[in-house]
Design goal:
Elements lengths: L5 E2 L11 H12 L11 H12 L8 E5 L2 H14 L3 E5 L4 H9 L4 E4 L11 H8 L5 E6 L12 H13 L3 E5 L17 H6 L8 E7 L12 E5 L2 H9 L8 H15 L3 H27 L3 E3 L6 E5 L7 E4 L2 E4 L5 H9 L1 E2 L3 H4 L5 E4 L4 H19 L2
Parallel strand pairs: 1-13, 3-4, 3-5, 5-6, 6-7
Antiparallel strand pairs: 2-8, 7-8, 9-10, 10-14, 11-12
GO biological process, one term: methylation
EC number: 2.1.1.12
Organism: Apostasia shenzhenica
């Protein structure tokens, strides 16, 4: 391969940074001797969560900041381990989170999900698992699900939380990959506060919100994550671990500025967010079209920067190309595609969905065009189409 590899195996967007983001970052470095209130992001995050997910975060809740949502998730894994809990993940979860849980030797269970429901977490299946474990924790990516790009409806998350409350579950909702929903015509958004107010009282049930702003605020590679906790014991446990690397004051200043612009609905920022959503909607369509044409069964994305597809036309075919020789399956097709085209995708080993691979399409424009060519080239080599 003469060209560098194309990475469709990443979680972030590489679309151009909005001018408002660039200006906020530049100003944060130009400023000196910033007062504490100029870097305090709590109020902005509270308003963002209310506007985006309909949840009220009062001053009794703890806001913990980190350089990334992944780093904060590690703290939650450690809490689960310390409580001798079991972390439950739906099949079709971000592979990096599962890898972290396995690395830390956390007790974990995978709840099977089904194609018919878009590989979403099913309340009935969840209930059967929760009834069989003690000290359960449940991870949910939403409203936008990573890696499928599908969306949980408000009624769906309500049903899931109701089941979790009955079993006194610690629930972690990861909003890190939400904020760029681009097909929302029949989606009603979330109103978590109404749902929580109707749940039965439980001493052990808790809801933790994990998030970042790279999708919501189009901050690109600016490292920032937050964790909202409302359980005193959990708060105490998190702080008992070695301290986190917190975002630098310059990052907090820039984030505070951007949160203010979002709250004010600054026209330039809102226009850019709308433009990004339109680009992602168009790319999602183009990618799904190309994959379908080339023998993949696609689950069309509705938000975020990725989708999953099954290489149906390739499964079981014996391939001998570019030093690769094997019968293709959902796992080794990643290596076959990489060796022959230079395109990096996530295999089914990463997605956790049998035979389904992940494709991220939030690439630079030229890289996205090259990725489509790679998919077509691989089809020509293997299927002669």
């Amino acid at each position: 391969m003469d060209s560098p590899p194309i990475h469709m195996d990443v979680d972030r967007s590489f679309l151009p940074l909005p001018s408002a983001v660039k200006a906020s970052i530049f100003e944060s470095f130009a400023r000196q001797n910033m007062a504490e209130h100029e870097t305090d992001v709590r109020s902005g995050i509270q308003k963002l969560l209310m506007n985006s997910y309909g949840i009220s975060i009062d001053n009794s809740s703890e806001l913990i900041l980190g350089n990334s949502s992944q780093a904060l998730f590690i703290k939650l894994l450690l809490c689960c381990i310390q409580e001798s809990g079991t972390f439950l993940f739906p099949s079709g979860t971000n592979g990096y989170y599962l890898s972290a849980a396995k690395f830390l030797k956390a007790n974990l269970l995978i709840i099977p999900t089904q194609l018919e429901t878009g590989f979403k977490l099913d309340p009935t299946a969840l209930e059967s698992f929760l009834s069989a474990v003690s000290n359960p924790w449940v991870y949910i990516s939403g409203p936008t699900i990573m890696p499928t790009g599908l969306l949980y409806r408000n009624t769906e998350i309500n049903e899931i939380l109701s089941v979790c409350a009955r079993f006194g579950t610690r629930v972690v909702i990861d909003t890190s990959f939400s904020g760029l929903e681009f097909i929302t015509e029949d989606w009603d958004g979330w109103n978590l506060q109404t749902c929580l107010s109707k749940l039965p009282a439980s001493s052990s049930f808790s809801l933790s919100l994990l998030g970042g702003l790279s999708f919501e605020m189009l901050t690109g590679g600016l490292e920032f994550g937050f964790l909202i906790l409302n359980d005193p014991h959990l708060i105490e446990t998190v702080y008992s671990f070695p301290s986190l690397n917190k975002p630098h004051s310059t990052v907090r200043y820039a984030i505070k500025r951007l949160l203010g612009l979002k709250e004010q609905k600054a026209q330039q920022l809102m226009d850019t967010i709308a433009e990004h959503k339109q680009i992602l909607r168009s790319r999602s369509h183009l990618l799904a079209e190309m994959l379908s044409k080339c023998g993949w069964d696609v689950i069309s994305s509705r938000g975020g920067v990725s989708m999953v597809a099954k290489p149906s036309a390739y499964l079981g075919k014996t391939v001998k190309i570019s030093g690769f020789e094997s019968k293709l399956d959902g796992s080794n097709i990643r290596e076959a595609v990489l060796r022959t085209t230079g395109l990096c995708i996530n295999s089914s080993s990463w997605t956790g969905i049998p035979d389904y691979c992940r494709f991220s399409f939030g690439l630079e424009a030229t890289e996205f065009e090259r990725s489509l060519e790679c998919i077509s080239h691989f089809a020509n080599l293997v299927l002669q189409i």
